[in-house]
Design goal:
about 20% helix, about 110 residues, binds adenosine monophosphate, about 20% strand, globular, HIT family, subunit A, alpha+beta, single chain
Amino acid sequence: MSQTLFEKIINKEIPADILYEDDISIVIKDISPQAPTHLLIIPKKVIPKLSDATKEDQEILGHLMLVAVKISDDLGLDETFRLVVNNGAKAGQSVFHLHLHLLSGRNLNWPPG
Ligand code: AMP
């Protein structure tokens, strides 16, 4: 099966601006930022979308959230950010390898579009 875009980034086959990496996850800058800070927190395990995750992925999912907090602290985001998961094409998902968007650095409206 062909690799996802994010697997290629994880495997360093295509370049990305990597801010953080551990055994479970990688954090990169989004190539098309929608806020002054727009990061993608990506599990190394390929889970196509959140609704494909199973009980065995619970630790990974929790890890991604805690990485978001760590990165926010490291970047001095003043504990002010939004996490977004687009689940499915109709919800705006374009890369089918689960990822959290971390957005910060501007006022974020609610409800989102
Ligand atoms: P989504 O639409 O929720 O699946 O999010 C996919 C995100 O990946 C979008 O915000 C894109 O801008 C971003 N993206 C696409 N290609 C790259 C890339 N090569 N490096 C970094 N981010 C990318």
